[in-house]
Write a structure and sequence with these properties.
With 215 residues, the protein is mostly helical. It has two domains: 2-162, no CATH class; 163-215. It is built from seven helices and two strands, in the order ααβααβααα. α1 packs parallel to α3 and α2 (26-43) packs antiparallel against α5. The radius of gyration is 26 Å and the shape is globular. 12% of the residues are buried.
Length: 215
């Protein structure tokens, strides 16, 4: 279903010729993908919501949303933004409502997403309000949008008691394990290289010795 959603968004972008706006809205696309990636980084295994798929692995479906679905969604959203404030408010509300309905459908019937640790559709609506309004704010108040985004992220961390310190310690341990493995692999490579060099050196010396005695 995640692939079907991406195909639907791709077709909508193609129909409305939004590709010409990719460079124009690249900053906003990066902004949304960045905070989605930050969510995965901060929460680690203590997730609020998690995408599920019968085809893709957990990491694959996350990457699929970060790199394909989110950019297509934001590109479509910004490309057809009305010019007048009244129409913009209605437009943003429509996108929030449509996104919330799609998520409800995905959670209730399509099994595309699950909620955990006290998260529910109401909190998802708050996320959509933040995402769609702050993405617009990025166009005029770039720094303010980033400050408000980090502030709301901090609020969610506090409200849902996300164990950021614990997660950072786990990242540190995992990194030390990876570094240890890399050091072990480096030692093995060094040992193997040394053995190969010795064998080559012995062969070269043996050939020179034979040539020397052949004279």
């Amino acid at each position: 279903m995640h692939v079907m959603l991406a195909i639907f968004l791709f077709i909508q972008n193609a129909r409305k010729h939004t590709w010409k706006n990719i460079r124009k809205f690249s900053r906003e696309i990066f902004y949304v993908s960045f905070f989605n990636g930050l969510y995965y980084f901060l929460c680690k295994d203590y997730m609020m919501w998690e995408f599920t798929s019968r085809i893709l692995s957990k990491n694959a479906v996350r990457t699929f949303h970060l790199c394909i679905i989110n950019p297509l969604l934001i590109l479509l959203y910004l490309s057809k933004l009305p010019k007048t404030n009244g129409k913009r408010i209605l437009y943003v509300c429509q996108w929030i409502g449509l996104s919330a309905f799609t998520e409800w459908l995905g959670n209730k019937y399509l099994h595309m997403i699950t909620f955990r640790n006290g998260w529910n559709l109401g909190w998802s609506i708050c996320i959509y309000i933040n995402m769609y309004t702050l993405t617009l704010l990025m166009r005029k108040r770039f720094l303010l949008a980033w400050v408000l985004s980090f502030f709301t992220t901090w609020c969610y961390v506090k409200i849902f008691h996300i164990p950021v310190k614990k997660n950072m310690q786990e990242y540190k341990r995992e990194l030390s394990v990876v570094s240890g493995r890399m050091r072990i692999n480096l030692h093995l490579v060094t040992i193997v290289s040394t053995i190969i060099a010795i064998i080559i050196g012995v062969n070269v010396l043996e050939k020179k010795r034979k040539r020397l005695f052949s004279y």
